[in-house]
Design a protein that fits this description.
Radius of gyration: 16 Å
Distance between the termini: 21 Å
Number of strands: 4
Number of domains: 1
Strand content: 5-15%
Largest sheet: 4 strands, mixed
Number of helices: 6
Length: about 190
């Protein structure tokens, strides 16, 4: 598979803007998106070693470029199996801790087949963490703490997201994800 970096980034941006921000799944995303403080990086890694290498390159980028608030490391041609993705994510998180980044950066994730441990595969709630591609999301802990201070009722965010996704239904949520994959004209 030939990776079309511009297309993958355009699709991911569309998903971020229309799903994550548009449905307010993450109330902290809009300001950094509008300010252009999100870095989108496409990885062509095919092995655990190269996935970790690309992740650490993005950590280095965040170390150097303080104007970047968060990075989305996108894997369009690997980590397609959700269970394998979770295994690699755990190893990646361990590696970040070993490298001394605990408390500096947080690693979150999105995946096209995301499924919460206590959910059925067709539960619309899973779409709160589904994306067009497997994604490692690197966030600055300091940015998270600053955002948390300004947001009331943080504990309600996941519940509100699940409720909205279930109200919209699996067909509508799937449609939004498919629209992102068809949005390569940006």
């Amino acid at each position: 598979m030939i990776i079309q970096t511009k297309e993958v980034i355009a699709q991911t941006r569309y998903w971020l803007e229309h799903v994550v921000i548009g449905l307010n799944f993450c109330p902290f995303a809009r300001p950094v998106f509008e300010q252009g403080k999100i870095h989108f990086q496409v990885s062509d890694a095919q092995s655990l070693e190269y996935c970790l290498e690309d992740l650490m390159l993005e950590v280095d980028r965040l170390d150097i470029q303080s104007d970047i608030a968060t990075t989305l490391l996108i894997f369009p041609s690997s980590l397609q199996d959700f269970d394998n993705f979770l295994d690699v994510l755990e190893i990646a998180d361990d590696e970040m801790h070993k490298q001394g980044y605990e408390g500096v950066y947080q690693l979150a994730s999105f995946h096209p087949e995301y499924c919460f441990a206590d959910s059925a595969a067709d539960d619309p709630a899973n779409y709160t963490n589904r994306a067009p591609y497997p994604i490692f999301h690197l966030l600055r802990e300091a940015s998270i703490e600053a955002a948390l201070e300004q947001y009331k009722n943080l504990e309600n965010i996941p519940q509100n997201n699940v409720r909205l996704a279930r109200e919209m239904g699996v067909e509508k949520m799937q449609s939004l994800l498919e629209q992102a994959l068809q949005s390569n004209k940006d």
